[in-house]
């Protein structure tokens, strides 16, 4: 693993990413993923196996349950749930759930304009809102109104060349075979707890999880939907591969090392140019024991972070 100083200064506010390291970048089309290794923190419930959708009590009112006997659940920022023949919902904010606790989110948003029916606790799969919708969704946290994201969804559909409708499933479901390529072409590494994402060479987001299992359960939703949608829209034309000018295995390894070092240097330069460490507003939203959930709003990024004693436990930050 190669450490980049930019990681320690990337997240504004009173928290530390000490102990987190960036690995070798991987690229699939317009999407670059830089693995992040770091501490495996015990006591946190992963989002797929532990956090469950309990019920929807009305449009825009979604209840989640921490089904684990022990461990706190950190609700992933902008998680959403999909079921056939039901109105799919997404959340505008993160939250804490104690073991066995149920929590009703009354500021959820419907993402399927004309579909009726309520989500239930039966089989379900989850997504994370595409990056193009996340800044607006974060602004709408605490705002009641199940239709509040439909206009933004319709605009995103139009930009994707799809009918201008408030139906996110036009992307999530109908384009899923295209979007899953990013999940399959990028390979999470052993011990990976997060990732830095760039789209077309520009910062797109930073995701930090409490441990490798939590990240592994988040990976499909992040790669396919949170960042895959914008990468799909920015997909470049295939470029011919240029072979390395190496005559021996040692020369080939040296060329690979130089190529990786150059890519890391380029990413560091782009992060520095993006000025992501500029002063940002950090607003505490919620507490659970020693954990603090805060919303970060800066000139070039926004999102939410969870800290324990100032150290980042969870972070979901995206370009704005």
Structure description:
The chain is 27% helix and 31% strand. It contains 8 helices and 19 strands. Strand 17 and strand 18 form a beta hairpin. The N terminus is likely disordered. InterPro entries: ARPP-1. This is ARG and Rhodanese-Phosphatase-superfamily-associated domain-containing protein.
Described by the principal axes of the CA atoms, the overall outline is: globular
Structural class: alpha+beta
Number of domains: 1
* Proportion of strand residues: 25-35%
Radius of gyration: 20 Å
Number of helices: 8
Order of helices and strands: HEEEEEEEEEEEEEHHHHEEHHHEEEE
Major pleated sheet: 9 strands, antiparallel
Assembly form of the protein: single chain
Q: Report the span from N to C terminus.
A: 29 Å
Mean pLDDT: 88
What is the structure about, briefly put?
This protein is of the alpha+beta class and 320 residues long. It has eight helices and 19 strands.
